[in-house]
Q: What sequence folds into this?
């Protein structure tokens, strides 16, 4: 019996370690498509405006800057782009929620944020990272009160 347990345990431990070596896949996707996706239409509202990249917006009051990093499971959606849009919708929803909580009505200068905290700015695309099971989207934006 012991002769069977040790090889089985060794095989299990080796197979459990494999996902740790899997590299993240980085995908670039359209912000417009993500905002118009079914996932985004379910959670995003018009009461807090969203401005990506370096869009110029006049702010009557700058409230603060916050980050949102959200995940979506690959198993819950049919393809990687849909999963990216779902993670993007969750991250954007969290920025809108924070704006409401802080008394803001817009989130400006929304940029991507990777796991090394490096920011990247683009008005048209966002980046999502995916492993074997999860997709992640990180965003950072400034909550403001506009006139």
A:
């Amino acid at each position: 019996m012991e002769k069977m347990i040790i090889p089985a345990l060794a095989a299990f431990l080796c197979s459990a370690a494999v996902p740790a070596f899997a590299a993240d896949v980085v995908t670039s996707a359209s912000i417009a498509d993500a905002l118009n996706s079914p996932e985004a239409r379910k959670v995003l509202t018009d009461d807090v405006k969203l401005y990506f990249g370096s869009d110029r917006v006049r702010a009557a009051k700058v409230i603060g800057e916050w980050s949102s990093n959200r995940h979506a499971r690959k198993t819950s959606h049919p393809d990687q782009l849909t999963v990216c849009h779902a993670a993007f919708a969750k991250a954007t929803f969290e920025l809108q929620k924070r704006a409401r909580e802080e008394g803001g009505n817009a989130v400006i200068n929304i940029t991507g944020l990777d796991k090394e905290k490096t920011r990247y700015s683009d008005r048209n695309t966002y980046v999502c990272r995916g492993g074997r099971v999860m997709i992640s989207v990180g965003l950072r934006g400034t909550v403001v009160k506009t006139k």
About this structure: Strands lie at 25-30, 49-52, 59-73, 106-113, 119-120, 125-130, 134-146. The first helix runs from residue 2 to 17. Helices lie at 2-17, 31-35, 38-43, 80-102. The two ends are 75 Å apart (CA to CA).
